[in-house]
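Deliverable D2.4 — example input (structure tokens):
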């Protein structure tokens, strides 16, 4: 994650275009399309071979990423609303779809993420949800914070009697 100050400025790109990246098994970026490069404010060489957490925004709850890795390792697709930090401290919200890529023997050899700008009207809902999840991380080291955040979110889904992808995709569908 970058340590640049945050401007609080919410930016966007052409809603018709998609922000694409590919990573290796550890989340190191091995491909970034021009839309991703432009919106991130980094140049391609600053993004390649660097972990995707280079654009992690502190508003993102740790539990969401733990959930993502868990799903990807099971070869499940993953959807998420993500706020990312640009090099200059601005940020942008996206609706992301992450899947695995396979070699010719059908072994997972990396991951692929395609993102669209997130519908404006979902921002207050998702911001409030992530604030609630992040509150469970307060005062804990990274490992404990990730667990607390993840456990809270899993319980939240259970209480609402819904699985994660259905929850996220329903929110997305209802907003477009
Ligand atoms: C295909 C793929 C795309 C990812 N995209 C993002 C992203 O857009 N923003 C982000 O913060 N992390 C993204 N990640 C997750 C990061 O690799 C990392 O797990 C996350 O930022 C949490 O980092 P941290 O535990 O070091 O704080 C992505 C991972 C994969 C595999």
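Example output (designed residues):
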């Amino acid at each position: 994650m970058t340590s640049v100050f945050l401007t609080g400025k919410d930016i966007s790109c052409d809603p018709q275009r998609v922000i694409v990246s590919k990573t290796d098994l550890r989340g190191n970026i091995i491909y970034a399309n021009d839309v991703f490069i432009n919106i991130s404010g980094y140049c391609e060489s600053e993004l390649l071979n660097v972990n995707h957490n280079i654009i992690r925004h502190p508003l993102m709850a740790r539990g969401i990423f733990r959930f993502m890795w868990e799903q990807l390792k099971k070869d499940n697709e993953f959807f998420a609303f993500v706020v990312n930090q640009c090099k200059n401290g601005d940020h942008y919200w996206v609706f992301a779809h992450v899947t695995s890529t396979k070699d010719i023997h059908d072994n997972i050899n990396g991951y692929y993420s395609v993102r669209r700008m997130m519908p404006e009207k979902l921002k207050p809902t998702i911001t409030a949800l992530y604030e609630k999840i992040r509150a469970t991380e307060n005062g804990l080291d990274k490992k404990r914070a990730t667990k607390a955040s993840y456990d809270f979110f899993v319980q939240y889904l259970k209480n609402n009697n819904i699985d994660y992808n259905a929850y996220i995709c329903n929110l997305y569908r209802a907003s477009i």
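The mean pLDDT is 95.
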